[in-house]
Amino acid sequence: MKRYEQLADDIARSIREGLLARGERLPSVRQASAARKVSPSTVFQAYYLLEARGLISARERSGYFVTGGVLGLPPLPEPSINDDAEVTEVDVSELVFEVLESTRARKVVPLGSAFPSPLLFPMARLAKTMAASVQAMNPWRSVEDISPGDAELRRQIALRYMIDGVQVPPDEIVITNGALEGLNLCLQAVTQPGDTVLIGSPTFYAALQSIERNGLKAMDVPCHPREGIDLAAMERALTQHKPSACWLMTNFQNPLGSLMPDEKKKDMVALLTRHNVPLIEDDVYGELYFGDKRPKPAKAFDTKGIVMHCASFSKCLAPGYRVGWTAPGRYAKTVERLKLTTTLSTSVPAQIALASYLKKGGYDRHLRSLRHTLLLQQIKFVDAVERHFPEGTRLTSPSGGYFLWVKLPDGVNSLELHRAALKHGISIAPGPIFSSHKKYTDYVRLNYGHIWDDQIESAIETLGKITHKLAAQKAA
Amino acid sequence: MKRYEQLADDIARSIREGLLARGERLPSVRQASAARKVSPSTVFQAYYLLEARGLISARERSGYFVTGGVLGLPPLPEPSINDDAEVTEVDVSELVFEVLESTRARKVVPLGSAFPSPLLFPMARLAKTMAASVQAMNPWRSVEDISPGDAELRRQIALRYMIDGVQVPPDEIVITNGALEGLNLCLQAVTQPGDTVLIGSPTFYAALQSIERNGLKAMDVPCHPREGIDLAAMERALTQHKPSACWLMTNFQNPLGSLMPDEKKKDMVALLTRHNVPLIEDDVYGELYFGDKRPKPAKAFDTKGIVMHCASFSKCLAPGYRVGWTAPGRYAKTVERLKLTTTLSTSVPAQIALASYLKKGGYDRHLRSLRHTLLLQQIKFVDAVERHFPEGTRLTSPSGGYFLWVKLPDGVNSLELHRAALKHGISIAPGPIFSSHKKYTDYVRLNYGHIWDDQIESAIETLGKITHKLAAQKAA
Fold first, then answer.
1. Domain A84-119+365-475 CATH assignment equals 3.90.1150.10
2. ipTM of this model?
3. Which of A147, A191, A214, B384 could form an SS bridge with B460, CB 3.0 to 4.6 Å?
4. A345 touches chain B (CB under 8 A)
5. pTM, to two decimals
């Protein structure tokens, strides 16, 4: 690594870790050169690099400012696991459906959507690859590629694990209908109805729906908006409630965008191993990092086979193809059999198309461009929220993924905001759908994975106006 | 309908209904002409037509003989539902997996397989259609075609229902990952763990696995090998045990091949309606009829929305694509929501490829050829079993589908046959995997959906020899 790259990385880390907040000015080139004992040109090169990565930008005559990073984080949700009442029957699915169904019309501005814009993906190249591979397909593949799945695809996935420093043999991998099927199968593999599942709070609503549907109970553990789940609270919960599984997103958690540091992942896996609780790791956003390299999954620190890693191509390559996978550690055989009796197999043409795409190369080039686009989008969205929303609003600016978690001014009800916004043709994801207790009533999740244009800018302006109005009503 | 077609249909019905058994001679042309008061040429034309359909064949100088139809049916399983013990925890999945996994190697002769040969399907034409449709696909379809599924595909499916005389609006249809997902979702929509499900006996093992996996109990009702479930026994079971659902195949049941007559379907739906028990109707073989027209599903007789009809393209058009559907009557919304939280969506490229294929036409032409091939295959398989298996063997010859249900001589154990056959590289499906009580120890299911060749002929010969040996051991 060259000296200027080293310097850029150090600064990038400081930004990601919140030491340098968005809006702050960086040291001048002269100051940095003196402090770091490097030539001014090294500093210049480092700043150029950071600018290209979207982390800082130059303002005329005033120097460089942090434009990515973290500013005004929402507060840590209050710890709330110290009494038994916190193990709850989950009953949020109806609300989730009500919200999601209201936002599916195409003309609605999709700030509440869970999907990034399909226009960000190489759909034409994928289609071409699929056309070639399905026309060359041996008909017997339709039998042989049923679960655990196409051998070449599993080999390609194992190769990517290897490159990221995780040892996963192809034999451990089960191809699934998107990550969601993998997560559901993993949950079913290690729980019985009535069991308790440890989750973060806030959490992705699909986890809540799955827990509810499988007759399980949820136990919330608070999550820090930057570093993920609170390990001390997790330890208390493990001791008191003996959950059958833990279901978490480690990288760019939905909705928080939190990125659990590697050391913390390691500690968490050790903790869960001590308590013999399997970890269902939802890692669908891991490839969408804005930093220097892919954050490791908790799976990387697993020595006993307790981590059931789930991921997919839906959010980073091939939306709608419904190809995901799981590497379920010591539960691999159980999960494979569950898959066989649930959906038998993942669509074979989709499997062989993705195997062929991965083999050809070009995935990493696409990912680099996708990450860059998402980061630039984040800067625009954050900037617009800051301009249009009332004082007292706080928000994350995660170092990956495509969600902002926005704390509205105290007392502003996000379900009211949701209903009012919908009348203006704008969807948002209100906080209560991310909680087994329907908490987070003054939070919303905004999707910045849709291409910035006047309609979106105007939608954020409208949301800001409605929030102003709701805040004024509360004050009155 | 022309006169000779009418005559051919009458004879075909007599064969299917067992009035004319396989091996019997038909009346001479002169006799038939006199008896039916039609010209000899009308009789000739009718016989030609039946020969083309594979139901009869001419033997030199001896006239026409029945080659299709029914001969030597296995006995009706003994009624066995009169005591509470018959509601059972199901624990057969392990055995099913053990059997299925042992038969997956490509070089094993697949008489135990659940799939027909993929070479029987228009894979090249499908691939071409998929290539064109995926390359013309609007990227937004990846979002819009999530569950309930692609609008054009649902419209095409609704059109086929209409042609078959069943009223199903496109809005009721949910596209699933093969029929298996549809069946599982329907079961989950109407049951809670601990509930009882009424099934036929023998029954398709995937139903048993699904019941087991969902923590349900099974209640067996005996099935007639030609006409399906015993309605009197069903009525007693409904009254005594109050099941939450009934799961059945009405057309060409796996493994029996039984076809429930229309009147019986109507009576069954009325019976279930009176008891307010939803019917999960697995109709994946309905298109594979050898008669004159598609047998109706029970869904056709449903007036109250209690029939949850499940089908797919996997067995009749597009193996490996994993596109099925369900029309779940009054439970449509519940099933759609379950689908959203289970796998979110069926692979979009596969959905639009099939929509495009159906729209273009050609499906019915393919189906006619497929049915004809399967019927010819059945004749060869039945003939080979009759030549090679010992006395005391009995078998079905169903009027659709691609399975034979073979009763071995008394006391011959089909699991022993399975293990011995596997050593010769031959798979079979032993009877016990089709029973919640692991009954049918002297039955096997043979798949005649693989293209007849010397290897298959020799495999049946080997199976016959092993059976002879096992029968001799029992006798000794």
1. yes
2. 0.87
3. B384
4. yes
5. 0.88
